[in-house]
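Feature request, filed as a ticket because there's no other form

It would be nice if the structure record came with a short human-readable summary line next to the tokens. Right now we just get the raw output. Example of a typical job, pasted below so the devs can see what we mean:
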Amino acid sequence: MTETPTRPETPTRTEATQEFPQHRLRGPFNSAFFHAMGPYLDSALHPHKERVFADLPGDVVEIGSGVGANLPYLPAGATLIALEPNRAMHDRLRAAAAGHGIRLDLRERMAERTGLPDGGADTVISSLVLCSVADPDAALAEVRRILRPGGTFRFVEHVVAPQGTPTRAAQRAFRRPWGWTFEGCSCERDLEGAVRRAGFADVQVEHYRLHTPFLPFNTQIAGIARA
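Raw output as currently delivered:
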């Protein structure tokens, strides 16, 4: 583990304990895409994020932190343990954390293998991440493992649309190019079912629909699961 301070009031460190294959095109493309589209996406998602990310504590674990879309929802001076395997995201994430006054503990880890201790986290958050993990059930089991009893998993995710709808047809038609472009992202996952299967003590889920040009992405859920 090495110390890489961004600036004195927002120290940053990066733990790179595992090596992950990095696609020379997709990694940088996704970093640039989410950096450019972040304000637009957040404007659409803001009411839902504002609800489920309300009153976050001073120490938060995030799976798939990307370029820092959720940093504005953390209290100033908070510490974020950011699990982000795409190295191309890291520089933008560091800069965004410094700009928001967040202490960043950046770890190049997968959601299924966080390397964090049992029961050590008060809160884990994710947004638009469970669609692209290799094994959602394993990732959610890992979230439960690292949460303390009574801790919360707060999520905003896009999910499979109901059968027979135009959105479901679009998800099926675009699944291969969409998945290749967005590093394994699937528009066809029943993530509510996965969260409910994961064994949380309580799960509260809101269903909603966005109205964006990204039709396969528009069916969404936001919720809070308590360990």
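Something like this underneath would help us a lot:
The chain has one domain: 2-226.
The first strand starts at residue 2 and ends at 3.
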